[in-house]
TrEMBL record:
SUPFAM superfamilies: Prokaryotic type KH domain (KH-domain type II) (SSF54814), Ribosomal protein S3 C-terminal domain (SSF54821)
Tagged with keyword Ribosomal protein: yes
Classification via InterPro entries: KH_dom, KH_dom-like_a/b, KH_dom_type_2, KH_sf_prok-type, Ribosomal_S3_C_sf, Ribosomal_uS3, Ribosomal_uS3_arc, Ribosomal_uS3_C
Domain of life, per lineage: Archaea
Family matches, as Pfam families: KH_2, Ribosomal_S3_C
Biased composition regions of type Acidic residues, renumbered to the chain: 222-245
Domain KH type-2: start-end pairs: 17-86
Family (UniProt): Belongs to the universal ribosomal protein uS3 family.
Entries under NCBIfam families matching the protein: PRK04191.1, uS3_euk_arch
Official protein name in the record: Small ribosomal subunit protein uS3
Region annotated Disordered, chain positions: 219-264
Basic and acidic residues bias (residue ranges): 255-264
Length: 264
């Protein structure tokens, strides 16, 4: 099989498995799944905010899902792991399903959407955007947008810092599409500058700790030499002259002895 076809088939398979698990785990906080090939088979990691519902009593629900995935998608030895989402309010897929569940129960779409927006902002999001399209209140389809906070629309921040989740809801009047976009406050924008707290205080303390040059020397160790008088200087020079003459004479005597030995 060509490499391109292999990756295309793998992506199609993952998309189909995500759609299947999304329908089977409806109203259970399903936030997506990941497929990973292992030497023992295929590992499927399900992210959810309510792991107890996904696992079931004594793992009965997980066993049913494992058998269904194995038979429907022809996967050899599948194993399903359940991962808990720590902050479900910052997961767009979970929030989209919550809005769909509230509308399905009969709650007004505006009230349901604004309550979710407040929860998301309170949980620590920089901005939220909710799109609801379809026959919401009348026989004519329309598009409603709800926003809160600041959210990037283009560029690298929109690609890297914004997470999106989509879900669909079937009503008597038709199908509603719900899309939620969340930008967490932890994402650093390109124009933001963070100043480290206390860095200027540290520099001032370092300046205070710097000792002057005199403190590096111990005054007790410094020995002051006395300047000799003129008479003492003359005596020193005389002694050095005598020593030089003695060395010269000794050198001359050695040369004379060498000459006499050569003549003999």
């Amino acid at each position: 099989m060509p490499v391109k076809k292999h990756f295309i088939n793998r992506g199609i398979q993952q998309t189909l498995i995500e759609e299947f698990l999304g329908t089977e785990l409806d109203n259970s906080g399903y936030a997506g799944c990941e497929l990973q090939k292992t030497p023992m088979g295929t590992r499927i990691t399900i992210r959810t905010s309510r792991p107890g519902i996904v696992i079931g009593r004594r793992g009965a629900r997980v066993k049913e899902l494992t058998e269904a995935v194995k038979d429907k998608f022809n996967i050899n030895v599948p194993t399903i792991d359940v991962e808990t989402v720590e902050v479900p309010e910052l997961n767009p897929q979970i929030q989209a399903e919550r809005i769909a569940f509230a509308i399905q129960k009969g709650q007004n779409y505006r009230r349901a959407t604004y309550s979710i927006l407040r929860r998301i902002i309170k949980a620590g999001a920089r901005g939220v955007e909710v799109h609801i399209s379809g026959k919401v209140t009348s026989q004519r389809a329309r598009h409603q947008v709800f926003r809160a906070g600041v959210i990037s629309k283009c560029g690298t921040p929109a690609d890297e810092g914004v997470d999106a989740g989509v879900t669909h809801l079937t009503m008597k009047s038709g199908v509603l599409g719900i899309r939620v976009k969340i930008m967490p406050i932890s994402y650093q924008m390109p124009d933001e500058v963070k100043i480290i707290e206390g860095i200027f205080d540290r520099k001032e303390e370092e300046k205070k700790e710097v000792k002057p040059v005199d403190e590096f020397y111990n005054k007790d160790e410094i020995v002051e030499e006395e300047i000799p008088d003129e008479e003492e200087e003359d005596e020193l020079f005389d002694d050095t002259d005598d020593a030089e003459e003695a060395t010269v004479l000794s050198n001359d005597d050695d040369e004379v002895k060498k000459e006499e030995e050569e003549e003999n």
